[in-house]
Amino acid sequence: MSDSLDALFNRKPPTWFERFAASPQRFVAETLYQLRPNHRMRTRPLSMTISSKQLHVVCLSDSHNHEIQNVPDGDILIHAGDLTNRGTVPEVQAAIDWLDALPHKYKIVIAGNHELCLDSSYQERDTAAYYSPPDSLNWKSLLYLNDSSAVISIPGKSRPVKVYGNPWTPKQGNWAFQYLRSEDFWKDKIPADVDILVTHGPPRHYLDNHAGCISLLQDIWRVRPKLHVFGHIHSARGYHVLDFTPIQKKYEILSDGRGGVWEMIVLAWSLVVAHLLSLAYIREGQHETILINAAMVKGLKNDSVHDDVATATMAL
Description:
single chain; alpha/beta; Purple Acid Phosphatase, chain A, domain 2; disordered N terminus; lyase activity; lyase
């Protein structure tokens, strides 16, 4: 396995100087983007007060053999992959047993790049015969998704909820469920009517330490799910809201290294106009996607976990 992968996922967030030195244009674009209207109001803590009329989703990822304590209650529990360290069948089954013991009625799980035993293509690449068909495991109360969907009807909610899960991430090292970063892997892959998207990796530019997937981001622009749960980049854990505005699009273009001084001026002027006109351009529940990087482990060796578990609320 590649040491560089662990270094990427577990590194400390870069300082402002390191960010500026790496890419001045991206640093300025990110700084301006943080000034958008309602940013502070919309950057909520990972744990939030909930209403009984809303759907309450408990979000986990990257537990890596840890059995997380004090998991809050909710309508749906989601684990976005990397249940294990080495990806063996006993490790996966132990993680299943832990999640099954939690009181949530609906539990949805996808694999991550560490779940070697669940990726049939991994056996073809490596002589170690890790692969074990998913149906050889006892998933108990868990719904396991792999490029598949589940529709859940929750008593008291206005309509069923559609969840789509997919574990694949851009290739880094010799791990499971990986595609070439140059590949447009996600093009038209996410169902158009999905409410909750679960992937192991993040989209480009958001909670990703600049290691996310541009193809995934492009398909999120197409579908605009209400909630996207992921992990993979441990040190980028957090919460963000995509509002799908021209300001967001300009930020993404500049962060990708495209555009230049003129685009930077346009972004700055757009923010000035938005503030002067008091534009509440992020409208609650309208065409916005909540992003949660729910990675639980911390430390260079994944030897400790965060105290809080991410939750999200969404209106149906």
